[in-house]
Amino acid sequence: MANSELWIVRGGGTTLLQSLFMAQRVSIFVTCIVDQLFPNVGLAMADVLERLGYQVDFPEDQTCCGQPAFNTGYRREACQVARHFLKVFRDSEYVVVPSGSCTSMIAHHFHDLFPEDPEARRAAEALAQRVWEFSKFVLEVARVDDVGARLEDVVTYHDSCHALREFGIKNGPRRLLANVRGLELREMDAAEECCGFGGTFSVKFPEISGGMAGTKIDSIVRTGAKTVISVDSSCLMQIQGALARAALPVRTMHLAEVLASR
Amino acid sequence: MSVAFDEKVHKTLADANLQLAIYRATGRLIDHRKHAVAATVLPDYQELRTQANAIKKHTIDHLDHYLEQFEANVTAHGGKVIYCEDATEVADFVLGLAKERGAQLIVKSKSMTTEEIDLNERLEHHKLESVETDLGEYILQLAHQRPYHIVAPALHLTRYDVGDLFARTLGVANETVVEKQTLIARAVLRQKFLAADIGISGANFLVADSGAVVLVENEGNARLTTSAPRIHIAVAGIEKLIPRAQDLAVFLKLLGRSATGQALTVYTSFLSGPRRAGEIDGPEEFYVVLLNNGRTRLLADRAKRESLYCIRCGACLNHCPVYRKIGGHSFPWVYSGPIGAIITPQFLGIEHEPSLPFASSLCGACAEVCPVKIDIPKVLLDLRAEAKQAEGRKGANRMERLAFKIWAWVMCHPRIYEMAAMVAASVAPAGNGKWLRSAPAVMNLPPVRAWLSQRDLPPAPAKSFRQLWRKR
């Protein structure tokens, strides 16, 4: 390797030499819902990543991935927001996201938003290779399945649809949970059934969405678990909202919060 | 969505017995399928899906070629192919033929395509009796209802419902044992089979290289329908074609398993042409009616034409959490569930059912089980975009459009996003960290009301993530 290459600036603004001695930098995209409603999830994710030896970077210009507009049929608006996202995370080597759904939007749908802009399309395709759902990052990039967490609790795990079906995230979070000291995981029978959130679906068709949440919480209650865990805060908002409405003493926690517990 | 849709949904959700009936029936079908496609019994299941998708893609991309080949082979066997643009043309053909041949009675085997064009009603309107012979369809014909499910049309009815119905319409004793109900129907239908002049069937597959109509079924009624009367008419959508008989090795392995969990259905019939010299059964005349009814509109759309790959197994309905809540009759057309949500607006035109593609949480369970790998969520997303473009052209739904315009602008301006969020957080109640049953007047917006109609609202945290991050 030529000496000069050691000083070449790599993605994330670090040089190769720096990256040998310094912690590797990961950018986090906390998602708009975590930023505004569940900030502890973002903090927990950052904690876990730091504990794994990463330097965590929060690009402050981040907002949303654009999925609300995309799923509601507003392609132009989704495209604008996606363009902003591409700009914000242009130099990030890794983008870690506490959501299977937002990660899927970025990795699977961004490139379709730019049919007439090959440059943006290429940028989206390149970003798709660098964006990671949180649990997948921990297991496949950091290659850790025991983060040293401890939580005395009986829990059940909700497979959020996009994590499960678009990334095949099924056993990974369970492996991570199995290594949390004091934790007992009880599987629910409807683990893979949608919670009924579905973005604007939840308010466009509230009765159907609420009915689906009902099926979900019935299944949760049958396990006797005290806590429901998922990798998506939007599912948890739906599930917690329905649990609270039914006055059931079950709480929800994002996987990152569980892994940050000690 | 339309008022009628909302009412049907509400009624279905409020009916505990119906909810249980749907959930149990679809649950059974889910279990059966799961065992039938398990890696231990069908190790090449995923490869079969990939192959099925490739064959359908190839066929649909070259449909003109295969239609001609199919027609040539049917004709060579002494049958006749009739192309029909819509429901009226099909009804006219059947009525014309019935008149010419002096036919009085028609028996029918199960066919979604004939449901799609209300064939029975059209024939009855002209005083031509047409009797459904599939047990589920027969029950529905007596009840004057349309199918609740593509594969299990009377899925929503219990044996008690059927007992009442038979007693009321057939004048028999109220019988609640399913086997005995079957015998009642059988006694009526045998006479119809013997007396019928015309048998009308659908088609599961049309095989281009042999000119054959392939039918799968469990009751034997389709075989009787197509062999007992002197005339057989098969009515099928043009998308039912497959190139070669050997392709059935792929599709027959997938169809029964996906639909009911059967490795093969009880009967699989290959029908190619009328009875030939020396044959002991079969019809004297054999017609295949190929229906368009909006299908070529779909064919013209490269991105969404994969909707035509469907082999009507119904697996997407069984696995759809929305279908399992709202049932089949809430859907505006005969095709319900995820496949109905994508083909209804495409067959009838997006302006006809603009809200239907939105009635999905996009969970993807349908695509996961589709034997021909139709990417239903992607098609739904494309249809949503089309619906919004159509609204834009008409100037409809202005508030929502404006809201998303502003939203997108805010999301592209991080400082304004942060300020807007702070303003929102300042009016949103913190509720001591407790979830909220109601919202203050300032938040009394339709989406908030809709959310609160079913669920509690999360309390606003004291600080956003970015505020906390800065202090960290």
Notes on the protein architecture:
The complex is a heterodimer of chains A (262) and B (472). Chain A has 262 residues and is of the alpha/beta class. Chain A has two domains: 137 residues, 3-Layer(aba) Sandwich (Rossmann fold); 114 residues, Rossmann fold, CATH 3.40.50. Chain A is built from 14 helices and eight strands. A four-stranded parallel β-sheet of chain A has the order 2-1-3-4, with helices on both faces. In chain A, strands 6-5-7-8 form a four-stranded parallel β-sheet, with helices on both faces. In chain A, helix 6 packs across helix 9 and helix 12 packs across helix 13. The N terminus of chain A is likely disordered. Chain B contains 22 helices and ten strands. Chain B has a six-stranded parallel β-sheet with strand order 1-10-7-4-2-3, sandwiched between helices. In chain B, a hairpin with a 4-residue loop joins strand 5 and strand 6. In chain B, helix 2 packs antiparallel against helix 12 and helix 16 packs parallel to helix 18. The two termini of chain B are 47 Å apart. In chain B, 46% of the residues are buried.
Explain briefly what this protein structure is.
The complex is a heterodimer of chains A (262) and B (472). By secondary structure, chain A is α/β, with parallel strands linked by helices. Chain A is built from 14 helices and 8 strands.
In what range is the share of β-strand residues of chain B? 5-15%
What is the N-to-C succession of helices and strands of chain A?
A: HEHHEHHEHHEHEHHEHHEHEH
Helix fraction bin of chain A:
40-55%
The profile of the biggest β sheet of chain B is: 6 strands, parallel
